[in-house]
Amino acid sequence: MDTQTTALPLQVCAQLCRRPCYCPGVPPRCPRGSPLVLDGCGCCKICARRLGEPCDFLHVCDQSQGLVCDYSAAPMGRGATCNYTEEGCEVNGRVYRDGEVFQPSCKLQCRCLDGGFTCIPLCQEDIRLPTPDCPYPRRVEVPGKCCPEWICKMQDMPVRGCPYMSPLLPYPCQEWSTEWSACSATCGMGFSTRVSNQNRYCRLETQRRLCMARPCPALPANSEPHQ
Q: How many domains in the chain?
């Protein structure tokens, strides 16, 4: 590190920090989200600088938010700004600190990690199969509640497939299935899968079928192995 840059805070301290301290009689009124803190000299109360705001030795950043004065892009210590000490992540225009847990919606809980983020659902993703007391279950949005809920009321709605009677079941089986997955091979023969209850027992199972996205290109004649 440049010795001139390293010595900069000590030079500024000697120039700005006078003893005894002389501070205004009334502390400043800070904008929302900016707490009152001691200046870099440890003398007077000032408004802590927020993310992206200019800073220097005297005008310190809000350490309660994990901010430090970043001199990395500041020649001779001028033009520094407040930045996070560790790599954060940005979601929907808001920056979160590394390790911070947040909820972008009532249905998700996320954690900022190494510049990215991972999320887990807060709503149950269970599957409810038809039963004698609830032959046509479906999940609906409920006013005032975040997560959808299962109901058994008979209502007009478009459904995939028609209910059918299985000789082994005393009630209609409402057909349910996911979309077929992408083919396992980019060329030539492969297979795709889906989860469906379209079987004689009306039970969820993984089904497979053959697929071919496109034929594989023929190998050039000169690529054949030599005898």
A: 2
127 falls within a domain: no
Question: What is the CATH classification number for the domain harbouring 113?
Answer: 2.10.70
- Determine phi and psi for 76, rounding to 5 degrees: 55, 30
Average pLDDT score over the chain: 75
41 CB burial (10 A radius; 0-12, 13-18, 19+): middle
* Residue 61 vs residue 182, higher pLDDT: 61
Pairing state between β 138-140 and 149-151: antiparallel
Q: Which of 56, 115, 45 is nearest to 81 (CA)?
A: 56
Domain that holds residue 109: 89-121
Asked if residue 183 has pLDDT above 50, the reply is yes
SS (HEC) of 144-167: CCCCCEEECCCCCCCCCCCCECCC
Tokens standing for 107? Answer: 């249905």
In the beta sheet, which residues pair with residue 109? 120
Q: H or E segment at 89?
A: strand 89-91
Residues 22 and 61 in one domain: yes
Q: Do 117 and 96 reside in the same domain of the chain?
A: yes
Residue indicated by tokens 């599957």 = 127
**What's the rounded Cα separation, in Å, for the pair 47 and 61?**
9
pLDDT at 99 over 90: no
